[in-house]
Design brief:
Oligomer: single chain
Largest sheet: 11 strands, antiparallel
Radius of gyration: 22 Å
Order of helices and strands: HEEEEHEEHHHHEEEEHHHEEE
Number of helices: 9
Length: 311
């Protein structure tokens, strides 16, 4: 009898491990949730001998479900607090920078049936806010470093950066917040996929485990990019940052020299753990990521927790 019970238990465990799980928002109209994110970032460049810089950030974001139908949801995202301390006054290309750009500005977005963001409802309002924030950032940067005007005129820099403010980029920002980026994925332990994360092609592997009424998803990530893809990544990032066409062309022409110095490789290694409630809302998530590119090593530790809810 004991052997029979044990066999049944083992069979059930096998089914649990191999069962596919759809990550899906089951939100209700009127749901509100407040998340607090803490992040630590360390940037070092050993080859440049510049040592390291660190920054710590805390963000508070409120989500409110305005509508819920079989076809999807309409959700308002409102960043109410962004505090950054340390050596770096902003975390470039990160979730924290994205939240800082839309501080106190409602971002209303619609999703598909699984809760994945697909459209910004108040797009023009959000673009205007991000454009205003970008202009202030550039004004402050050039005021503190007037010599930059000779390298790249301020208006040209501003024009390049504001051109990059699109619906696609704002949707990407929402996904970078980490609450909706897994929605729509059907996973089981052992599954792998390939995704773009902040412009980096990443190979992911997954472990999916049901624990005490929650679904825990562990995502292990490594970079998977050829030298040509790394070159495209670097040039795209330079373009997005407003670097002049002349400087970008210089990098293209001298790429082999960069490669000889070991700058043509990009290595990313990280682990992100999500814990989802039955409602589809995340209970929390933690992420540890290390990126090595162009002689610079960036380490990010981030934790997001559900601080308040009405469901």
């Amino acid at each position: 009898m004991k052997k029979t019970i044990l066999a049944i238990a083992m069979f059930c465990m096998a089914l649990t491990v191999n069962a596919q799980t759809l990550i899906k928002g089951n939100y209700q109209k009127g749901d509100t949730a407040v998340y607090v994110t803490t992040a630590k970032m360390e940037v070092s460049s050993p080859m440049a001998g510049s040592g390291s810089m660190t920054a710590n950030a805390t963000c508070e974001t409120r989500y409110a479900v305005q509508d819920a139908t079989v076809d999807g949801f309409v959700i308002e995202c409102l960043v109410t607090k962004v505090d950054i301390t340390g050596d770096i006054d902003q975390l470039p290309g990160s979730m924290i920078e994205a939240q800082k750009m839309i501080l106190n500005t409602p971002v209303i977005f619609s999703t598909d049936a699984n809760g994945k963001p697909v459209k910004i409802v108040n797009l023009e309002e959000v673009k205007a806010k991000e454009t205003e924030a970008t202009k202030k950032m550039i004004d402050d940067l050039y005021a503190a470093n007037p010599q930059m005007e000779q390298m790249r005129p301020k208006e040209a820099m501003l024009g390049t950066l504001t051109e990059n403010i699109t619906e696609e980029s704002i949707l990407s920002q929402l996904e970078s917040f980490g609450l909706f980026d897994m929605n729509g994925a059907t996973l089981k332990s052992g599954d792998t996929d390939e995704r773009m994360k902040e412009g980096v092609k990443v190979q992911n592997s997954y472990t999916v485990t049901p624990i005490l009424g929650t679904t825990v998803v562990v995502q292990k990530s490594t970079s998977n990019m050829s030298e040509d893809e790394v070159k495209d990544f670097v040039i795209n990032k330079m373009t997005e940052s407003g670097v002049s066409a002349e400087q970008i062309e210089m990098v293209k022409q001298n790429w082999q020299q960069f490669a000889a110095m070991g700058f043509s490789s990009l290595n990313l290694d990280g682990t992100t753990t999500y814990r989802f409630l039955k409602s589809g809302w995340a209970q929390d998530s933690t992420s540890n990521m290390t990126l090595k590119a162009m002689g610079v090593e960036t380490k990010v530790e981030m934790t997001t927790k559900l601080a308040q809810k009405n469901f």
